[in-house]
Amino acid sequence: IFAAVEMAPRDPILGLNEAFNADTRTDKVNLGVGVYYDDNGKIPLLAAVKAAEKARLEAMPPRGYQPIEGAPSYNNAVQNLLFGKDSALIANGQVVTIQALGGTGALKVGGDYLKRLNPAATVYISDPSWENHRAIFESAGFAVDTYPYYDPATRGVNFAGMKAKLGELAAGSVVVLHACCHNPTGADLTEAQWGEVVEACRARGLVPFLDMAYQGFADGIEPDAVAVRLFSASGLQFFVSSSFSKSFSLYGERVGALSIVTADKDEAARVLSQVKRVIRTNYSNPPTHGGAVVAAVLNAPELRQMWEDELAGMRDRIRAMRVGLVESLKAAGVAQDFSFVIEQRGMFSYTALSAAQVEQLKSEFGIYAVSTGRICLAALNSRNIGYVAKAIASVAKA
Ligand code: PLP
Ligand code: TYF
After folding, report:
1. 366 with 26: CB under 8 angstroms?
2. Alpha-helix residue ranges (DSSP H) falling in the chain
3. CA geometry: angle at 154 spanning 153 and 158, to 5°?
4. 229, 345, 371, 389: which could join 355 in a potential S-S bond, CB 3.0 to 4.6 Å?
5. H-type helices in 151-190, by residue range?
6. Using one digit for the tens of pLDDT, what is the confidence trace for 88-103?
7. Of 272, 267, 293, 289, nearest in space to 77 by CA
8. Can you give the pLDDT at residue 398?
9. How many Cα atoms are found within 13 Å in the side-chain-facing hemisphere of 12?
């Protein structure tokens, strides 16, 4: 059966973990995968999560099946975070939310549902984007193309190019948009630019699909939701995938959600019934633990405050690492201006290091980055930042 099976290529990012884990150097640093580490280089278990898990363990709840769409306490909490607790869309019953297996699972359920809804559409992702965006929508059966996004000259967004492209797409095209903390570039749209994207989607009859994997990592929970809020105010229908992997440091529990804004309550009920069909034939219903923990934290004011403070701590530490890296590079004698790293948002920076320089960082220093030059700032800490800066200085001079 398997004699002719070929080896599949490794995921360009998750594949780095395997190489990193096999590296025996003690001063190695993994700047590849997008994971938040604390200043001790550990993935934190948030105190709010710990408290909710302890309570749940003590209660020893039975392990029945969840509803296909997940628990209402979880889905409602997700809606409040994304759309705001006073959202008219929520009050009107226009929003469908289902618990998904992380942000990835949300994109997959959304992609599979869109394929049933609009099979001939083309899906457009940013150039560049998280590589899994292309893979997920292609595996759902769509042709995937790109819209211009990153401008290496300004290290910001090529907004004129993006807008021009959106302005020529066929009606019904799906446009995947990073709601905040763009992966991999760290370059985000301004609020005014989001307003123009909303109008372009309206003018061309596009299907917006916002991907929100890092809410709270740029400016805060509310400000980071600006794109979702502008689309909400527009009267358009759209999709949002969201994830608690990063914001709750619950990567392996696979906690995310897919939300779909429909025209009214009746439409919402019909859409939900179809999305449930997609879920049933994929995994039937979502796992309990991660969603129950997140819901417990978000719905209890004390735990919620604790979480917001911890999230702010992660956000502030990443910012400090951005500033620290720029200063350390300067101190290490790098002539090139790296101050753009401070302006970028979220976990990532597109450093403009070449694939050859990235390779050299790995072979000479045991520092792992994505071959595109993307580094994860959240893997820097007070002990490795000097080492990383010296290594970058060394390869940048060569
Ligand atoms: N979308 C983007 C833009 C991401 O960077 C990630 C990263 O993990 C995801 C989705 C997937 O999130 P999850 O790990 O929750 O599946
Ligand atoms: O971009 C990243 O590093 C994160 C983690 O297939 C990730 O989004 C990377 C690759 C992948 C799944 C998650």
Report:
1. no
2. 14-22, 47-59, 72-83, 88-91, 102-117, 131-139, 159-166, 191-204, 226-234, 265-280, 289-299, 301-331, 340-343, 355-365, 385-397
3. 95
4. 371
5. 159-166
6. 999 999 999 999 999 9
7. 293
8. 63
9. 13
List the structure tokens of 324. Answer: 């620290």
Confidence of residue 397 (pLDDT cuts 50, 70, 90): confident
Judge if the upstream peptide bond of residue 128 is cis by omega within 30 degrees of 0. Answer: yes
* pLDDT above 90: residue 9: no
**Alpha carbons 128 and 167: distance in angstroms, whole number:** 19
For residue 216, which of 241, 257, 247, 186 has the smallest C-alpha distance? 247
Domains parsed from the chain with CATH numbers = 14-44+315-397 (3.90.1150.10), 65-287 (3.40.640.10)
Q: What angle do CA 72, 78, 83 make, to 5 degrees?
A: 120
Which range is least confidently modeled, 9-18, 49-58, 204-213? 9-18
* Stretch 183-207: mean pLDDT: 98
130 catalytically annotated: yes
Which of 14, 210, 214, 245 to mutate to test ligand 1, by most ligand atoms within 8 A of the CB atom?
A: 245
Bigger pLDDT: 144 vs 13 = 144
Query: How far apart are alpha carbons 294 and 298 in whole angstroms?
Result: 6
Show the DSSP H helices in 300-346 as ranges: 301-331, 340-343
Distance CA 354, CA 368 (A): 13
Residue 42 Cα to ligand 2 middle (Å): 18
Overall average pLDDT of the 364-370 stretch: 97
Asked whether 243 lines ligand 1 (CB < 6 A), one says yes
Round to whole Å and give the CA distance between 258 and 248. 17
Q: Which amino acid is at 163?
A: K
Region 213-241: mean pLDDT is 98
Distance CA 348, CA 295 (A): 28
Residue of 11, 13, 101, 255 to test ligand 2 pocket, by largest number of atoms within 8 Å of CB: 13
Which residues, other chains included, contact 164 with Cβ-Cβ below 8 Å and sequence gap of 6+?
148
- pLDDT tens by residue, 36-56: 999 999 999 999 999 999 999
Please choose, from the candidates 336, 268, 269, the residue with its C-alpha nearest in 3D space to the C-alpha of residue 94.
268
